[in-house]
Amino acid sequence: MNFLCRWCKTWLLRQRGVRMTPQLYRVAYAWCHEQDTAAHIVRSALATAVADAALLRAPHLLKQQVLFYMVRDHRHRQSAPEQPAAPASDRWFPPSAGGIAGRVRQAMLELSEEQCKIVTLVDLGGCSYREVAAILDLPVRSVVRSLCEIRTRMKERLLNRRYGRPAQVVSLEGLR
Amino acid sequence: MSHRQNDCYELLVAYVDGQLNRDEREYVLTLLEQEPELSRRAWELRQTKDMVEFAYEQVTVPSDLSKPPRGPGPLRFMTAWVAVLVLVGVSLLGYAVVEKQGAHKPHPEIQAHNSYPATLPARPVPPPA
User: Fold this and answer.
1) What is the pLDDT of residues B88-111, one digit of tens each?
2) DSSP structure string for A87-147
């Protein structure tokens, strides 16, 4: 009976995990900007979280736990020796992309790794400050301060026109 | 930025992120009504947040990610084992119910008809001549 109960809970966790997949994938994608890597991070984090026996007693912590495993996996990848470059699969945000998406990507690339994780967990993952602090193993106060700094930088980068590329003066003398 | 301004900005960021409770929200809303500069900054923060969300909404999820994840190790075979157990359990339960209700026994009349009489009827004795 215990076995059946455990199996049912695991099955329910899996279904909940599948429903969260799009949100989790966007968070992972914002970290690495590679489809394959993001998909792999999400898949392995979900599988690890579902197999976590402790989660069966607190299924409401599924998202937090999956995000925790995603952060751990991504950090592990960052610290691993350099892998051969994957084929360019970044079709949503090509480096030359203009518009809002391109500008946001550029702004995200300018953030530090931890800042990028904080802002994506809040904005894309829908996490509270406490959850972000628990996932990243930081004090809540640090999360709040970092977010203030991130928002200021993003605002300047995205909204303030004077931070855009300055106009270039081209000499036309040689053309004639 | 002074200490008070810093606190105010943190409160504003938390307000935009929807992290405040009812009382704190009321306080911020009052401040926003009183100070147009603060209101402008809140609007800019909201706009920035919306831009980040908008930018990543376009990212489509690979179709193979929508399949349920398979657990490592023994969990991988759990589904098959549970299916077999459920099948066996239902079969045993059905058998027990049928056995209890006595459905396997024939109708009493049929049983009486088919059963061999326990004692043969006595042959009538012919009257003495």
Assistant:
1) 999 999 888 887 776 556 677 777
2) P----SS-TT--HHHHHHHHHHHTS-HHHHHHHHHHHTS---HHHHHHHHT--HHHHHHHH
